[in-house]
Design goal:
Number of strands: 2
Shape: elongated
Number of helices: 10
Strand order of the largest sheet: 1-2
Strand content: under 5%
Largest sheet: 2 strands, antiparallel
Structural class: mainly alpha
Helix content: over 70%
Order of helices and strands: HHHHHHHEEHHH
Radius of gyration: 25 Å
Length: 268
């Protein structure tokens, strides 16, 4: 077995370089390419410092287009360092191909896990408890963030470094299962938020001189909280229309709320 060239302390510093500089100079041309290169500079210097040609090739390769969920990049970084440490500059094309092929799938997994878990799940818990005057939800949200920053990110980095290119075959099925589970959890939380936090009170309208209680006499008999679900579907559909923005959606909700209130459809 080939001896390792990087100490645990050096690897820890490289991992933290990505945390602090991963989004450095992010742009539409190369996205996180500059941040990735900056993170890899100590690796390049240690592995190729005396070989000018190899060093230049590595600098060019690691400055190319790169865009991946920041948390999942720790896996790629660990794998990258392990492969270059073992194979040297001759593996730089392999590493470049590996980054290109992995950043998409890992972003799909990472965005689902970290966006859904962070914003939807823990954010909704914090918002719900805050609405009741309880700050515990915000504390739980912050604890999750600290867990990702100080425990999960270093773990992913060490895992990538230890497994190298073998990681993809060994853990692909587990990652897919985690992604699916978190997606289902996110949908459950969003549905619960719609039912518990979105308030729509419908009034009574006259149909052919016959009063109809829209809330209790119609929608609640079909499905409780149906107006909230219909509003969510309508906003989701509108969000996908060309030229639609979040600001326009908010103004749309305000406008229909005022109009329906004036018509007596919505009541306080």
């Amino acid at each position: 077995m080939m001896s390792k060239k990087f100490t645990k302390e050096e690897l820890k510093k490289i991992s933290w370089r990505w945390v602090l500089m991963g989004q450095l100079c992010m742009n539409y041309g190369k996205m996180q390419g500059s941040g990735y290169l900056t993170t890899m500079l100590p690796v390049i210097e240690k592995l190729y410092g005396d070989d000018k040609e190899a060093k230049e090739k590595a600098l060019v390769a690691h400055s190319q287009f790169y865009n991946c969920t920041p948390q999942m990049t720790h896996l790629i970084l660990g794998m990258d360092i392990a492969i270059e440490e073992q194979e040297g500059i001759k593996a730089i094309d392999t590493v470049s191909s590996l980054k290109t092929s992995l950043m998409g799938p890992l972003s799909g997994i990472g965005d689902t896990i970290f966006a859904v878990m962070n914003s939807v799940v823990f954010g909704s818990i914090a918002a719900t408890m805050a609405a009741e005057g309880n700050p515990l939800g915000l504390i739980i949200w912050e604890v999750w963030y600290m867990f990702v920053l100080f425990i999960l990110r270093p773990f992913l980095f060490r895992l990538g470094y230890k497994q190298g290119a073998n990681l993809i075959g060994a853990y692909s099925d587990k990652l897919k299962s985690i992604t699916k589970a978190v997606s289902v959890l996110g949908l459950i939380v969003v549905g619960s938020m719609l039912a518990s936090m979105v308030s729509i009170n419908l009034g009574t309208i006259n149909i052919f001189s016959t009063p109809l209680d829209l809330q209790a006499g119609f929608f609640d008999k079909i499905m409780p909280k149906l107006p909230q679900a219909l509003l969510a579907f309508a906003l989701y559909w509108l969000a996908g229309r060309k030229g639609m923005t979040t600001t326009k959606l908010i103004l749309f909700v305000i406008a229909i709320s005022i109009i329906f209130s004036m018509m007596g459809v919505l009541v306080a």
